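From the shared-data thread, chain only:
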Amino acid sequence: MKNKILFLDTETGGLNSLKHDLLSVGLVVWEDGSVRSEKEILIKGSPDRVTEESMAVNRIDLEEHNETALDKDQAVKEIIGFVEENFEEMPVIVAGHNVGFDMGFLRQLFDEQGVSFSKYFSHRSIDTSSILQYIGILHNFSNKEIQSYSSSDRAFSHYGVFVEPGRRHTALADAVATARLFTQLIRHRPEIMPVGSGANQQSSRPASVSG
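Structure, as tokens:
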């Protein structure tokens, strides 16, 4: 084993980890280009700690969600159990797309339960959005082009990362897709996505990734 990384994605009741609940966590073990293990954990939320806008994006019915979701203390135990089962050394490196957002909510969950976040998760992280922005800067893209270039929807489409219909914006599906995107960024690092729609621009689109 050379490289082993924990990919993380979350679905939340809003944008503020102090005001809104963490509702689901997708965890994916990435090892040397492959997804080795995965787990999704649903967490109970409170109606006064979610926004209509976020619930619409996540397509979560809170009442139905809470019927099968875990209490926060049990969710933390499940997360720790998954990490300890899949990683020999801690804290683990965490990766994701705009992963700082997800780590903020996860840290808040651990803090609320009085559990050390830094014991299990490194403060060093890998962000696929930042990688894509870096590539855009190398090729002198405008700020507007960089923002488009680094979006997950566009990156998944260009690099052939398949997300099952109806599963986009679920924590596990997005975590798996981001892990596969990371693999493609490594495999095809000399290539960049074309910007604009000029007739002379040609896309060397990588083959689809499904596993």
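Residues 4-187 form a domain with the Nucleotidyltransferase; domain 5 fold (CATH 3.30.420.10).
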